[in-house]
Amino acid sequence: AQKITQTQPGMFVQEKEAVTLDCTYDTSDPSYGLFWYKQPSSGEMIFLIYQGSYDQQNATEGRYSLNFQKARKSANLVISASQLGDSAMYFCAMSNTGTASKLTFGTGTRLQVTL
Amino acid sequence: NAGVTQTPKFRILKIGQSMTLQCTQDMNHNYMYWYRQDPGMGLKLIYYSVGAGITDKGEVPNGYNVSRSTTEDFPLRLELAAPSQTSVYFCASSKQRDSTEAFFGQGTRLTVV
User: Fold this and answer.
1) Does A52 touch chain B if contact means CB atoms closer than 8 Å?
2) For a Cys staple, A93 with which of A89, A103, B10, B16, CB 3.0–4.6 Å?
3) Does residue A34 belong to the interface with chain B, where contact is any CB pair within 8 Å?
4) Would you state the pLDDT for residue B1?
5) What does pLDDT average to over chain B?
6) Cβ–Cβ of A91/B42 closer than 8 Å?
7) Is the predicted pLDDT of residue A51 greater than 70, yes or no?
8) CA A111 to CA A85: how far, in whole Å?
9) Which of A44, A47, A102 has its CB closest to that of B45?
10) For residue range B73-86, what is the model confidence (pLDDT) as tens digits?
11) pLDDT at residue number A62
């Protein structure tokens, strides 16, 4: 069985600052994938970034980067230069297939960006 | 470009009623999924399909049924609605087995009273 833990129910960050959203995972599978999704107040799920368990380098997508520490089983999302539009729920997820099929989600972190 | 389309967006059901949540995608994706999101929680997988005619249970399948007669459509059926099925339902799709991105619909907010 796999499990995702997000221990920060809510976070605040000032505009233009960087913020780290924590995610730890548990799995016994050697191959897996880690994902971050954004859910704005409108409700849709927006894919942000993906990290494969065998990827040597941390994934980056624009202002998003994934700080992957395999030994610690953590996959934190770093958002640089926060914008007001980043205010949303953020979900960490994983799949033991290494792909986007059959995702297991954490409970999410609500990020609020302030002026 | 429509992507993944879910209907209806909102629905109120009485206990014991049945309904079908519709999901269609126009990206020719083989894999399709149904998730539910309870208040304050992450999404949980209900059912998934790896292609037309093939479906399998996810983490929380009880009380639901699915079918996949075409590549495009993946309806979710609730036979006897219960208050515990009050949730937001998301349909998603991914192109193939090694895809690392799933595309989600806008969600259906269902209330059972």
Assistant:
1) yes
2) A103
3) no
4) 65
5) 94
6) yes
7) yes
8) 10
9) A102
10) 999 999 899 999 99
11) 97
The closest alpha carbon to A75, from A16, A28, A12, A32, belongs to A32
Residue whose token pair is 């997508």: A61
pLDDT value at residue A110: 97
| Partners of residue B90 in chain A, C-beta under 8 Å | 45
User: Of A59-68, A78-87, B31-40, B92-101, where does mean pLDDT reach its minimum?
Assistant: B92-101
DSSP strands (E only) in chain B:
4-7, 10-13, 19-25, 31-37, 43-51, 54-57, 64-66, 76-78, 87-94, 103-104, 108-112
B→A contacts (Cβ < 8 Å), by residue, are 31, 33, 35, 40-45, 48, 50, 58-59, 88, 90, 92, 94, 97-107, 109
Terminal-to-terminal C-alpha distance of chain A: 41
Contact A44 B106 (CB under 8 A): yes
Mean of pLDDT values over B50-59: 94
Listed range (A52-66, A97-111, B59-73) with the worst mean pLDDT: A97-111
Q: Nearest CA of chain A to the CA of B101: how many Å?
A: 5
Indicate the residue type of B26: D
Q: Do B40 and A107 touch (CB under 8 A)?
A: yes
Element (H, E) at A20: strand A19-21
CA A93/CA A107 separation, integer angstroms: 9
